[in-house]
């Protein structure tokens, strides 16, 4: 899955991933391949990204934002508010 994480100032991540774990307004979720389409509010928190090489990255997402998971593994977009 392609993951894009953007703030107003810069791109925090842009690449292929196996999973994304983050806090939404309804609790912590993990997005894996073939996840159902989703749009959600994201809370400020640490985000865990596991890339295709099984490398884990922790990103400090310090503001509220929006998550969009597109259907059929088209991609994931996370925008900081």
């Amino acid at each position: 899955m392609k993951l894009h994480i953007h703030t107003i100032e810069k791109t925090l991540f842009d690449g292929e991933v196996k999973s994304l774990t983050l806090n939404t307004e309804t609790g912590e979720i993990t997005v894996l391949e073939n996840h159902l389409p989703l749009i959600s509010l994201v809370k400020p928190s640490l985000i865990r990204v596991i890339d295709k090489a099984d490398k884990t990255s922790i990103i400090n997402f310090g503001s509220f934002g929006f998550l969009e998971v597109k259907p059929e593994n088209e991609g994931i977009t996370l925008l900081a508010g």
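The mean pLDDT is 94. The longest strand covers residues 11-24.
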